[in-house]
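Long-time lurker. I teach an intro course on protein structure, and each term I like to show students one example going from raw sequence to a predicted 3D structure in token notation. This year I'd like something fresh instead of my usual example. Would anyone be willing to generate the tokens for the chain below so I can use it in lecture? Attribution to the forum is fine with me.
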Amino acid sequence: MTLNPLANPKGVSLLCELCQKPAFIQCTKCRVTYYCGVEHQKADWMGIHEKICQMLIPLRVPEPFLSSDDERQHRHQQMTHRKKRMIELTRTTGQKLLFEGHHEQAVPAAMQSLRFSIDVYGLSSIELVPSYLILGEASIGLGRLQQAEEYLAQAEWTVLKTPECSSAIKSKLYRNLGLLFAAKGNYDEARHQLANDIYYASEEFGPHDIHTAGGYFHMANVFFRMNRMDVADSLYTEVTNIWHQHLSQLIRWRLKTPATPSGIGPAVEGVQEEEGGLDEAQEAEAIQVLNSIHDMREQLAHQNPLGLANICHTLTMLYYLLNDMDKAREFSRKALLSSETAPPGEDGSLTTISELAKVLDVHPETATTTS
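-- Reply from a regular --
Happy to contribute to a lecture. Here you go:
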């Protein structure tokens, strides 16, 4: 990362990427991004710019002269497609950073996604709401609750005036409102908002989907803070079971013998698409949520061996899928130990855990970072 001080010609107004104040520094890699100072340049680089630096060039260079309507239409479609890709990338990155606890770094990514969303869809579109929600959640994490309220109010207003708004977006809105009220210590209102989150997520994805599990997890955290451990424990168990089922399916896809498709073309692509997987944000969510449940269960004075075995087995599968074999083996050992100490007749998961442990024993060492 290098700096390029600017001496702007008279009449040329360049604005900072983060605060929109007059800019005096240029990114020397893309030369189309500007900053008011070193602090904002570094913040943007760490948050999102390193990932999209070169992708910004074709979006910000002056448009070439095109003589025909067909050429102009083709360029417009091409630019719109690129901007939509940027929206998806910046939102996923922002959400990933939130799950990792990097709230300050999530802000530049969310601002980029909001900027491109406004450019593509306009100022009042429902497509802007996911970006507002990332900004709202980042503000909650930073303790800037008044700012969070403003972002979430904007999101809520857009949702209310959009009758065709999807249940998925409503779910995310109510989840963020739940987090806001929880941060304020208003647990009754937090539970109400999170109940709405779970309702709309269940309507969109089903009650046992990983998209719905986040609502259960945050609801469990609220009950935990209220010292209602019986309710919190049942919700943590539900979250674990949802992720366990989802990751088990991904494990089955990975371990099955690849089918040999006949012919070429769409049939081959269909086999690849069937396997699916987790995107960056979902990986970060799984790491954050499942490790939180594990740490809570491990610290309980009266441990539930099967509950601990279940979360350890789920983490084993997660890290196996992430190719972090050291952590996979660590949690596999914990899962086996907890299962073996369970009361007789309650170790139904022991066989499944043992089978995955055998797979890990023959798997080559793989070094990756998942933090």
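Some talking points for your students: The chain has a mean pLDDT of 86. The first helix runs from residue 38 to 52.
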